[in-house]
Design brief:
By secondary structure, this protein is mainly alpha-helical. It has helices at residues 2-16, 22-31, 39-61, 69-90, 101-125, 134-165, 170-190. Helix 1 (2-16) crosses helix 6 and helix 3 crosses helix 5.
Amino acid sequence: MTDFWIYFKIGLSHVLDINGYDHVLFLIALTVPYAFKDWKRILLLVTLFTIGHTFALLLSVFNIVTVKATLVEFLIPITILVTAFFNLFTAGKSSKQESITFVGAITVFFGVIHGLGFSNYFKAILPGNPSEKVVPLLEFALGIEAAQILVVLAVLILSFIVQTLFRFNKRDFTLVMSAFVIGVVVPLIIENPIWKR
């Protein structure tokens, strides 16, 4: 049981680490178009992201996929930027309530990219052969899912407060928060070492 908490806490800190705020930025961009009444849809999206993230780690642990760290570190902020821009173009439109297929598929794909970004570190902290890493990987995934739900709850609470107390409408809140995410993530893309090659 001790091992479970070790890897669960690593999953929690992977998302909630203040120095690795890219994961939180992605969750903000993913959540801002929704409200508490959309909790099933949000939970599905968050879980799809975790599935993609875990799938990427499995591929890496079994040495099926290896990707250059510099490329992944460039792609991660791109996924955040794309999600935030998607919000800008769809804010206030009813399409948010329709099919989840497109957004769900993109969320899984972005989860894979984020998982690849953590894969080298994850392989380094786990001893043993690949098959011995599967259970710790699932424990880690549960930690990620729990942390993501905490972030989503925080965003939904902030959204509720801003809309209730400050009379912001949902569309404006989505636009402001998405613009904030874009403002934080664009410098990450510009300063990425990939441009210096």
